[in-house]
Amino acid sequence: MATPGHDPSSSGSSAPQTPQLSSPRSSIDASKSPRLGASNLHIQNPSSAAQHRQSFGDLRYPPSPRSTRQSSVSSIAIQDLIDNPPHRTAPDARFAHRDWRTIRVAELSSPEDLKFIDINANVEEATNLLIDSGAPVLLLRDSQSTAPVVGTFDYNALNAYLLTAVGIAQPSEENAEKFAKMAQSAGAGKPIPLRDVRDIGRKDPVTFLPESANLTKAIETFGRGVHRVLIAREGVEGNIEVTGLLSQTRLMRFLWDNGRNFPLIEQLYSQYLRDLKIGSNSPISIK
Predict the structure, then answer these.
(1) What is d(CA 106, CA 210) in angstroms, rounded to the nearest whole number?
(2) Where is the composition biased (Polar residues) (predicted)?
(3) I want to staple 239 with a disulfide (CB 3.0 to 4.6 A). Which of 183, 187, 217, 235 is the partner?
(4) Could you read off the pLDDT of 175-207 as tens digits, one per residue?
(5) What is the DSSP letter of 160?
(6) Beta strands 137-141 and 116-118: pairing type?
(7) Residue ranges of domains in the chain
(8) How far apart are CA 227 and CA 202, in angstroms?
(9) Residues 81-108: pLDDT tens digits?
(10) What is the pLDDT of residue 53?
């Protein structure tokens, strides 16, 4: 029996020690971390990959470019354009206090607008003239300087020629052989005369208006699908002499810039298209 103050471990004979068994609950409690409060919780946001679960359709087909395409013009820019329409130049005093319907087409054109080219010139020469002159269209005529206009050549005709030359556009059956030979010549680097390409693609008919025609007649002509008219004067021996060119764009610009001279036109600018009943409410689609 051990006396008080005597340490059994210090005695010479050591008694066998019984291993200490710890309770499973106590070991779990000892290793358990402190209880987390609501303020210590940190929830990570799911990644963008987790937010978007790909469907079988996404895996089978490439994504549509429409899903990532941005609008080229924002709604703010559109509203700003509506609130601040294009700037007008000062109205021409020549047309003040006149009825716009009686203005002659010759008053809106100038001989300087005309660019002529020989119909036997090649496409490269015509393209260079289009670029260098800045003209929207070239007037084709025979070698004689006083010969009448027999056709036009513009950027639409140039695009139609290029598409045919590379084999993208398919000509009609009656012109297939002709255009196939032309494409071969173009591929070989041979010059192609305008005479051979003037019938390619859809072209506006060459439309003439006399110098005395008024703007009402011009608008009626444009309403039939014509984009530009040649202003002509009857020359010697009945030959038609072209003295000017009037396009839809120039006419619309004239009416916009000089609207203050024409109250009938000016009052239309503040109205809505639906109130003016412009366009069709029942379009017809044919496939």
Answers:
(1) 8
(2) 8-30, 41-54
(3) 235
(4) 778 778 888 888 888 888 998 887 776 667 789
(5) H
(6) parallel
(7) 96-276
(8) 12
(9) 667 766 777 778 888 888 999 999 999 9
(10) 53
Q: Are the C-beta atoms of residues 256 and 239 closer than 8 Å to each other?
A: no
What is the CATH code of the structural domain delimited by 96-276? 3.10.580.10
Averaged pLDDT for residues 53-59:
51
Are the C-beta atoms of 148 and 158 separated by less than 8 Å?
no
Q: Strand locations in the chain, DSSP E?
A: 116-118, 137-141, 149-154, 208-210, 228-234, 240-247
Closest CA to 230 of 244, 218, 211: 244
> Mapping DSSP to helix (H, G, I), strand (E, B) and coil, where does residue 235 land?
coil
- In this structure, the number of other CB atoms found within 10 A of the CB of residue 246 comes to 24
Residues 6+ apart with CB under 8 A from 183: 164, 165, 166, 167
Non-local CB neighbours of 179 within 8 Å, separated by 6+ positions = 164, 171, 200
When pLDDT is cut at 50, 70 and 90, the band that residue 249 belongs to is: very high
Which amino acid would we find at residue 41? L
Structure token pair of residue 227? 């984009």
Rounded to the nearest 10°, the torsion over CA 42, 45, 49, 53 is: 110
CB 88 within 8 A of CB 253: no
> What is the C-alpha to C-alpha distance for residues 171 and 177, in angstroms, rounded to an integer?
9
| Look-up of token digits 């014509």 | 226
CA distance 125 to 191: 9
